[in-house]
Design brief:
The protein is mainly beta. Helices cover about 10% and strands about 40% of the residues.
């Protein structure tokens, strides 16, 4: 069962469609031009999301979605019975949509100039700190593509300059990564020289495992035990996971809530009968004909996957000895002792290929 608690309330903002002024969510008419808040106005979160502390505002936020008068369109609080503007009955009034999770606020410019007095204000201000006039809504400048001219966003006769992307820094990081990749390829992959070498020794070692069913204990494995498990002991481990959301109340405010739920995971200890290697039979030799041991096994045993290690030793024209591991027995059997080969070497002196 989930748990939900209210952390507090934030007063939203709405933008007047008539003059583009930002208004506090609780105001029903535009503070700049006096136009009424339209029914389809979109509430947005302010750039600075501070919890409301005024008790009257908290009560307003808790009332629920506002109702628009069916006669004059005036916005009324959820508990109103008649319209505050025309006195009309609100029984048929339409409540605003509510319950939507609010998105992060759009980016604001750092500085906005007041159209009335010209004073510079922080972009988060809704009214001028000098004269008290409402400030227009100004979108932050979009990112500038490389080579493109910056397009300033205008506030009256003033421009908000976009922040340029540091392409030099990005280019430097990409350049370093590219150099690292090139160094790795050059050191380990690309052959830098070729030398002649003669096979002076070959060696093989094979291994054949014998397996039988044995009881294997598993401890604190996540999830359900496999079928056939016994001596099973399970327990649950729980963790509370919480997420904060900001939800539109439909009345100019948003509710900040924390929703929590418990996630439970099962862990089990158990015993399972599994095929287990009890002994390994190795053979080795210095020729080109690797063979595998053929151990006798009982009816309750089986042979596991056989494996081999193959090594060819070269003496180079530079007087060094180099070891090479063929990828298959078929390749290994080509290296007759005394035969001459061309070794492709990387910058670190390792063999990349043999011809």
């Amino acid at each position: 069962m989930g748990r939900r608690r209210t952390i507090g309330y934030i007063q939203n903002e709405w933008t007047c469609p008539n003059c583009e002024t930002r208004n506090k969510g609780g105001t029903k008419t535009c503070e700049n031009c006096g136009a009424p808040q339209p029914e389809n106005v979109k509430f947005e979160l302010p750039s600075e999301q501070k919890l409301v502390s005024d008790q009257e505002q908290i009560k307003d936020a808790q009332k629920g979605a506002d109702i628009h008068c069916p006669f004059c369109g005036t916005r009324n609080p959820a508990d109103a019975k008649t319209c505050s503007q025309c006195g009309g009955d609100l029984v048929e009034g339409k409540a605003r949509e509510a319950g939507q999770v609010m998105q992060a606020p759009p980016p604001q410019p750092k500085i906005v100039k007041c159209d009335n007095c010209g004073a510079e204000n922080p972009g988060s201000n809704a009214v001028c700190s000098n004269c008290g006039s409402p400030l227009p809504k100004v979108a932050a400048a979009p990112a500038v593509a490389p080579g493109a001219a910056p397009v300033p966003q205008m506030t009256g006769a003033n421009a908000a300059k976009p922040k340029k992307t540091n392409w030099m820094l990005i280019g430097g990081i990409l350049g370093v990564l590219a150099i690292c990749c090139i160094v790795i390829v050059v050191l380990f992959v690309i052959p830098t020289r070729s030398i002649q070498a003669t096979v002076v020794d070959v060696h093989w070692q094979t291994s054949v495992p014998v397996q039988e069913i044995q009881a294997v204990d598993h401890s604190n494995e996540r999830g359900s035990p496999p079928s056939g498990a016994y001596d099973v002991s399970c327990h649950n481990e729980s963790e509370e996971v919480c997420e904060q959301k900001t939800v539109d109340k439909g009345n100019g405010y948003s509710e900040v809530v924390e929703e929590c739920h418990t996630e439970t995971e099962q862990y089990c200890s158990y015993t399972v009968d599994e095929w287990t290697t009890i002994q390994t039979y190795p053979l080795e030799g210095d020729d080109l004909r690797p063979i595998y041991e053929s151990p006798n096994i009982s009816s309750d045993q089986r042979l596991g996957d056989q494996s081999e290690e193959l090594t060819v030793t070269f003496s180079t024209s530079e007087g060094e000895q180099k070891n090479y591991s063929p990828s298959s027995i078929a390749e290994y059997q080509q290296f007759e002792v005394g035969s001459t080969w061309t070794l492709r070497m990387n910058a670190l002196g390792g063999i990349t290929s043999v011809e």
